[in-house]
Design brief:
By secondary structure, the chain is of the alpha+beta class. Strands 1, 2, 3, 4, 5 and 6 form a six-stranded mixed β-sheet that branches. It is built from eight helices and six strands, in the order βαββαββαβααααα.
């Protein structure tokens, strides 16, 4: 067995999508782009229905991948994520069928994410990502991804686009031109909506071993 970080994700309320074929194509396109950007050891792929998964050697790239996936699909498509670290064995030579504690942890995490959605906070903010890992690191990372989700939950469409651009290392001036607003307006949003904090959280998590 090999110790990896497994990500399991799925589309929220996918059955109600007006065009499921379009949804599938968008999901596949996004998975391909994030795979290229994060270099997993098992590429992101759709497994059953609208569920997808991938695996990374380190925590950091897996956490960044989950964040980038969610932001790339919002606001059109909402997704949820479970991540777990532990030993995983490939039951097929190509790595498409996996088993072991690491995979089970990711499954437990996404089940917890689904449970969190049933217990919506009084302010309407919802946690979409959970982390599961044995030892003291697990609860700390779970708290970090939940905090990140709650910050994202309050963003409007424009701030989501700006955040996505900042994560891709676009300048505020370039983003202002794309949005048709002034650099000052972008800067105000970055500070007002905590976009700098979200970028910093992502950067801190991305370097984790």
């Amino acid at each position: 067995m090999t110790v990896v970080v497994t990500l399991i994700g799925d589309v929220v309320s996918s059955r109600s999508a007006p065009d499921r074929q379009e949804l599938h194509a968008l999901l596949q396109e996004t998975l391909t782009a994030v795979t290229a950007a994060t270099d997993p050891i098992h590429p992101l792929r759709i497994t059953v229905g609208d569920e997808f998964q991938g695996a990374w050697e380190r925590r950091g790239p897996a956490l960044h991948a989950a964040f980038l996936l969610r932001l790339s699909l919002l606001p059109r498509v909402e997704t949820r994520y479970g991540l777990g670290r532990g030993e995983v064995a490939s039951l097929e030579q190509d790595g498409t069928v996996q088993d072991g504690p690491g995979w089970w942890s990711a499954r437990e995490a996404i089940t917890a994410a689904k449970g969190a959605e049933a217990d919506v906070r009084s302010d309407g903010l919802v946690v979409r990502t959970r982390w599961q890992e044995e030892g003291p690191t697990g609860p700390a990372l779970d708290a970090a991804v939940r905090h990140r989700d709650l910050l994202v939950a309050g963003l409007d469409d424009r701030s989501l686009r700006l955040l996505r651009g900042l994560l891709l290392q676009r300048t505020q001036r370039a983003l202002a031109e794309e949005e048709g607003i002034s650099p000052t307006a972008v800067s105000r949003r970055v500070h007002r909506d905590g976009l700098e904090q979200l970028v910093a959280i992502d950067a801190d998590l991305a370097v984790l071993p």
